[in-house]
Amino acid sequence: MMSSYLLVVEDETAIRDMVGFTLERAGFTWSGAVDTAEAYAQIARHLPDLIILDWMLPGISGIDFAKRIRRNDTTKEIPIIMLTARGEEIDRIKGFDAGADDYICKPFSPKELIARVKAVLRRASPVEPDKVHQVKGLRLDASSHRVSIEGQSLDIGPTEFRLLYFFMTHPERVYNRGQLLDNVWGSNVYIEDRTVDVHIRRLRKALANHRYDKLIQTVRGAGYRFSVQE
Ligand code: CA
To answer: What does R_g of the chain's alpha carbons equal in angstroms?
Structure first.
């Protein structure tokens, strides 16, 4: 396996070095940045596979930096893990809204750090166009753009296809409408949140055959989840 390259944006030297040392020991390569200006320079040199981003940075905050990363075409796919000293729910939500994929509360153990890094990298693994994704009898072939349920092919639109592809490659996690828009439509387009509901509805309708629409679950007040668990 090729070693992943991580960028650690953290103004506190002790924490930055601890994170870097932990990453190195786990076989990753990394570089550090003390603020967002340095982070941009590092990203321009070498696009990281993942960014570990401190919430409280001098100048531009981690949150604002994460939003900028998500808005930029070159960097929008890079997963972000936020480091935060605060654990309040509201902050976590702010972090996710800004585009963070996960967060770690300080203080954290090296073991927790590596577990989260690996999990996020696994989820973010690049699109493999030749891969066939299968969940129970539902089959999505990314190379031929075909979807079938128990051998019966489904006729779905391109947006529903992308939506289903995203769900099947990111199962068992709740995404709000904004996150689905960013991931499926791209963060540069302006589309109203309810557009997501329209396409979810169409996708469910297409999957209703053999009751596969149950895989796409509404999580009240939070968003949608693709799950095999009822
Ligand atoms: Ca800090």
So the answer is: 19
- Among 27-36, 86-95, 162-171, 172-181, whose mean pLDDT is lowest? 86-95
Residue ranges per domain, the chain? 5-124, 132-226
Closest to 103 in 3D by CA, of 45, 137, 63: 63
pTM of the model: 0.56
pLDDT of res. 229 = 87
- Ligand 1 midpoint to CA 148 (Å): 49
Distance 100 CA to ligand 1 centre (A): 16
Strand partners, 185: none
- Residue 189's nearest CA partner among 199, 180, 198, 201 is 180
Query: How many CB atoms lie under 10 A from the CB of residue 122?
Result: 8
Q: Is the pLDDT of residue 94 over 90?
A: no
The H or E element spanning position 25 is helix 13-25
C-alpha distances out from residue 58 to 37, 54, 55, 108, Å: 10, 10, 10, 22
Average pLDDT of the chain, as a whole number: 87
Tell me the CATH number for domain 132-226: 1.10.10.10
Q: Considering only 36-45, 122-131, 192-201, which range has the smallest mean pLDDT? A: 122-131
Tell me which architecture the domain covering 5-124 has in CATH: 3-Layer(aba) Sandwich (3.40)
- Say how many Å lie between the CA of residue 107 and the centre of ligand 1: 12
* Distance of CA 50 from the midpoint of ligand 1 (Å): 18
CA of 39 to the centre of ligand 1 (A): 14
